[in-house]
Write a sequence for this structure.
């Protein structure tokens, strides 16, 4: 009995020792807003103009954010012949202001887009970087080249498959 | 029209299988749950125990727990048990993520162990058991302000007193040995499964009092000093 009991104790001790820990941070850990360009009939539309998106930083400088999440689809910071793209969203600011610049060989038309949102701190583990998820609460825009920008999904998370906005350009742009 | 007879045949087969299984296991079950017939009385007293693993974790890492248990000895075979503990985590200024996580709360487990050894009244016991556990806790999470990577605004991150709760089951395998008189020492290994939880607005929690680190490992263990009273 003593020998059997000792074997059981050794077995249990091994199990406890083997219960090692691991770090499980999400592999896809960028939070971005997904846009899809559509024509009036609702079908995906590849824009023939080039599109670049810029925003104003805290220091007053304008930065181009087109290539941030679209590096495979962007040439010289311009999105051409694409019907979908991703843009950054600020960590914690009630409203983001983006300038959508549509250019052809002759001119550039700029629309300003204001996106209102609520920011939600998101936590996975003390080993994973701090992140923010967002709830989009409203959008407004000028209408030089954009016909309408329709909010489809309000929740912005790590999920890059969910489209948040349908962008309908004006015909002829 | 074709699916109807298929469903009824399947249900009939399943019912017959279940009946056979129930009848076959009924005798085994009654044997498992019945007490051994001998001259030893049913009620054999109480024991209290204290866990040393949680205490060591508390001293050596950012989290741990103080835990005690009260156990009833029924004929050296069945041991209804109530475990109460106080779990605490204080992870401050992570060198990589700069996150601070703090929580402290009591937790409770109730369950039962069965002594699986043939020689039940001897100095050794080998248990298998089941627990239901519950805790309600609040989380403080924060980090120093950091700049937004695109806009460069200063960003604060955190929540204070975020209310959370956690319910889980534990399957326990344990052993203990009489050392001297009423004093026993024993190990237990626990396999834990979460059954319900509320993580608040932050998405997930890290250390859960009594459960350990959420999503880390489902195995846990205790090393108990047990005193019969």
């Amino acid at each position: 009995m003593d020998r059997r009991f000792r074997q059981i104790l050794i077995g249990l001790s091994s199990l406890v020792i083997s219960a090692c820990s691991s770090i499980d941070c999400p592999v896809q850990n960028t939070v971005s807003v997904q846009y899809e360009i559509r024509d009036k009939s609702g079908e995906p539309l590849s824009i023939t103009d080039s599109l670049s998106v810029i925003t104003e930083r805290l220091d007053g400088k304008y930065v181009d954010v087109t290539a941030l999440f679209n590096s495979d689809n962007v040439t010289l910071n311009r999105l051409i012949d694409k019907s979908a793209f991703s843009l950054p969203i600020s960590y914690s600011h009630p409203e983001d202001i983006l300038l959508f610049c549509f250019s052809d060989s002759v001119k550039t038309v700029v629309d300003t887009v204001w996106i209102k949102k609520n920011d939600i701190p998101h936590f996975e583990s003390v080993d994973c970087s701090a992140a923010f998820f967002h709830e989009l609460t409203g959008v407004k825009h000028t209408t030089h080249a954009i016909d309408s920008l329709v909010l489809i999904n309000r929740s912005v998370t790590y999920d890059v498959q969910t489209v948040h906005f349908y962008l309908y350009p004006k015909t002829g742009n | 029209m074709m699916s109807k007879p298929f469903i009824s045949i399947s249900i009939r087969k399943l019912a017959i299988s279940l009946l056979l299984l129930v009848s076959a296991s009924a005798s085994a079950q009654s044997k498992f749950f019945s007490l051994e017939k001998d001259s030893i009385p049913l009620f054999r007293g109480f024991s209290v125990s204290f866990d040393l693993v949680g205490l060591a974790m508390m001293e050596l890492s950012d989290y741990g727990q103080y835990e005690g248990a009260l156990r009833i000895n029924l004929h050296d075979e069945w041991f209804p048990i109530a475990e109460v503990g106080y779990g605490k985590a204080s992870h401050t200024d992570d060198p990589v993520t700069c996150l601070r996580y703090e929580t402290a709360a009591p937790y409770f487990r109730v369950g039962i162990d069965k002594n699986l050894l043939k020689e039940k009244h001897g100095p050794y016991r080998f248990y298998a058991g089941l627990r239901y556990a519950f805790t309600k806790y609040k989380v403080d999470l924060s980090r120093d302000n950091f700049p937004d990577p695109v806009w460069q605004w200063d960003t604060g991150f955190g929540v204070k007193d975020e209310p959370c709760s956690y319910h889980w089951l534990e399957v326990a395998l344990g052993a203990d040995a009489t050392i001297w008189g009423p004093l026993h020492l024993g190990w237990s290994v626990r396999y834990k499964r979460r059954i319900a939880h509320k993580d608040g607005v932050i998405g997930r929690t890290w250390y859960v009092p009594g459960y350990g680190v959420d999503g880390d490992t489902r195995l846990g263990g205790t090393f108990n000093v047990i005193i019969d009273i």
Observations:
- Chain B touches chain A through 46 residues (CB under 8 Å).
